[in-house]
Write a structure and sequence with these properties.
Layout (H helix, E strand, L loop, with lengths): L10 E7 L9 E6 L5 E7 L5 E6 L5 E9 L4 E5 L2 E3 L6 H13 L8 E7 L10 E6 L17 E6 H9 L6 H13 L9
Parallel strand pairs: 4-9
Antiparallel strand pairs: 1-2, 2-3, 4-7, 5-6, 5-10, 8-9
Amino acid sequence: MQPDKEIQKWTVLSEHDVSPSPWFPLLKHKVKLANGNIVDDYYFSPLGDVVQVLPVTKNNEVVLVKQYKHGMGEILLELPGGMQQKNTSVIQSALNELEEETGIKTTADKLISLGKIANNPTKLKQVTYGFILFDAEFNAVQKLDATEDIQVITLPAAQVLQMAINNEIWVTDSLNFILKAALAYPGIFGLKN
């Protein structure tokens, strides 16, 4: 163990955009490591940040979305959310995505942060910001994107937690935010305080 060792960031010597399409940005970096070694072909994707909201109704039901995810070739259950929109704050993007995907409209002061996570910081430059919303109400209309076909599902919070534990909900960001919410608000998820 080296308790006094100071970790150094890499130095970017050059950057080239080699993106195959707007759907998947890809950068090639030439970097100098702290030990002096040069890596001239370090690829990663600056996909952009993501927002997710864990809406909880007055009856302690969690609102989930079920949709096809082409990268996995699977129909998956997850929290509503999406990419942070250009020139839009994280909070406003979360509000927009929640309304677009579920028909739940709310205000910024009602969102409570669950923190942030990075799914694969070695190959992706992407942070997912999570929020919980209490007393969520269906008070607007879904406004789905052209590529979206979403089924909105509400289930008791305790059942959603069990589904996360049983691998029925296994999308990384959703799983993490469900578990973080259960730790922060155990009573809602049927756990003892």
